[in-house]
Design brief:
The structure holds 2 protein chains of 2 kinds. Chain A is built from 12 helices and no strands. Helices cover 55% and strands 0% of the residues of chain A. Chain B is of the alpha/beta class. Chain B has 2 domains: 5-121, Up-down Bundle (Glutathione S-transferase Yfyf (Class Pi), Chain A, domain 2); 130-282, Rossmann fold (3-Layer(aba) Sandwich), CATH 3.40.50. Chain B is globular. Classes of the chains: A mainly alpha, B alpha/beta.
Chain lengths: 200, 286
């Protein structure tokens, strides 16, 4: 990200307001102690560390946050959330940011991870359960790396770790219905205050 | 624990990459008189991908399964750390009225938060007086819990968030030695081996090599993702680091099963990619 010589926080910070409402987490309270980053197992791979994500949100550097790889690399291991002395659930903030990129159609900061989550959801939508061989194959296709992980396949197939056929549930229609209704609800309550009424 | 009946939620991985976890869990539960009734037509909990992109979907998918278990009037148990985390989180979030209203709109009927969910590790460690036939004497085990069994405590209410002891006590009760180490709950890279193998390999290498340097003969896990990240990818990690690791990665149910007298084959130990049989033979356990 580019850091201007003098950071003048914009008067309105729409992303900060959205994220605080959507996640229910008081991001503005973060005092930059850095415990989240110190404990984060993926911080070394991130463009913005978790602490920097929080600061960028406070400063209104919305595009930098939404385009960062950090929000995708977060493994949701929750070490940041349980160590935060101000009890801010940082992992939940990361989830809300990912959700926001979906709504905004922002170009994800880590395409491979964003695509993987999409493929994973697609498999659940179709079969009601995860079909691992299908997940791996489809993920290779959409990420245009058809030969990725291929070395692992023979041993896993031999050990019976990758069933060829999906374990499909009977009530696939019910699961599809869940997806559909969630999408409809999220559209209806696209303003965060509606979606997060009550303390979430 | 003994004599209790649970609604069993195996989770998707236990039908595929983690079949040995399912097989060994069922064997030890049968021996210890813990009855498992599989939830009929259970569906995926959504894992991290559903919740990542849509918080509501991340609650609705597990809530659908909570509803199925509620109809059975039984507490849920699941061997998978991710599933137990998602199910427990959903039950917790359903305590919020607005969320409960939205979820019942999605599912077409109300789901209460009252269904209890216990990870299998918790169920099997309630009573540690196991009928041991073959003590695991001389085996040094690094107990690896991963993140989602213990964090966040405010929701999961199970053991310490960074230095849990439940599995250590269980392993010690089997006659083995549980080593003390610092990466018990460090993340292994979770569900990202397909998307970012580089990240997973680096995290898994740290965990495996520390356990080994501290003298562990093997690692015990309670999560299909932890096990597969440490086991299935170990050969690739060895190649990247030019270092032979060869550290067997067990499910805790397999070690429990060995102590209860089951054979390695019955416990599907031949399914692991890092062969544990030489270690077991060397310790007189194979």
């Amino acid at each position: 990200m580019t850091i201007p010589d003098v950071i003048r926080p914009p008067l309105s910070r729409p992303l900060l307001i959205f994220i605080e409402a959507h996640s229910g987490q008081p991001v503005s309270r973060c005092n930059q102690c850095g415990k989240c980053t110190a404990g984060c197992p993926a911080a070394w791979a991130m463009d913005l560390t978790p602490r920097q994500v929080m600061r960028a949100l406070q400063l209104g550097l919305d595009n930098d946050v939404l385009a960062s790889s950090a929000i995708w690399l977060c493994l949701s291991c929750q070490i940041c959330s349980v160590r935060c002395p101000l009890e801010i659930d940082v992992a939940k903030v990361m989830h809300s940011l990912r959700h926001r990129t979906q709504e905004d159609k922002t170009h994800p900061g880590d395409k491979n991870i964003a695509r993987f989550h999409g493929v994973f959801r697609g498999i659940i939508h179709r079969y009601g359960r995860i079909y691992e061989l299908g997940l791996a194959g489809l993920n290779n296709m959409v990420s245009r790396r058809p030969w990725a992980h291929l070395k692992l396949f023979p041993a896993m197939l031999r050990k019976g770790k990758l069933p060829m056929r999906p374990s499909r549930i009977k009530a696939t229609a019910e699961v599809k219905n869940i997806f559909q209704k969630v999408a409809a609800l999220e559209e209806r309550f696209s303003t965060p205050s509606e979606l997060t009424k009550g303390d979430r | 624990m003994a004599g209790r009946t649970y609604a069993y939620y195996p989770g998707c991985a236990l039908h595929g990459t983690a079949r040995e976890y399912d097989v060994s869990a069922r064997l030890v539960c049968q021996t210890l008189n813990v009855k498992l009734q599989e939830i009929k037509d259970w569906s995926c909990c959504g894992a991290s991908s559903a919740a990542s992109l849509s918080p509501l979907l991340g609650i609705a998918l597990p809530a659908h399964n909570l509803k199925l278990a509620a109809a059975m009037e039984l507490p849920i148990t699941t061997p998978c750390a991710m599933c137990s985390y998602r199910l427990k989180t959903a039950a917790h979030e359903l305590k919020d009225e607005a969320t409960a209203r939205q979820v019942s709109e999605v599912l077409g009927s109300a789901v209460g938060p009252e269904v209890t969910v216990e990870p299998l590790l918790q169920v099997l460690s309630e009573d540690l007086s196991f009928p041991i036939r073959k003590p695991l004497t001389g085996l040094k085990v690094a107990c690896y819990y991963g993140c989602l069994l213990v964090r966040p405590k405010s929701v999961l209410q199970f053991d310490d968030e960074e230095n849990p002891q439940t599995m250590d006590r269980l392993i010690t009760a089997l006659g083995a030695e549980a080593i003390d180490w610092g990466l018990k709950t460090e993340c292994c890279g979770a569900g990202l081996p397909l998307a970012r193998p580089d990240l997973v390999h680096r995290l898994a290498y740290r965990i495996i090599s520390l356990a080994q340097r501290l003298g562990a003969d093997c690692i015990a896990t309670a999560c299909p993702m932890c096990q597969s990240n440490l086991d299935i990818h170990q050969k690739e990690i060895e190649a990247e680091h030019g270092e032979k690791l060869g550290l067997p990665i067990f499910y805790f149910t397999q070690l429990l099963g060995l102590a209860l007298g089951f054979t390695p084959r019955e416990l599907y130990l031949h399914k692991h990619l890092t062969n544990p049989l030489p270690l077991l033979r060397a310790k007189g356990l194979g």
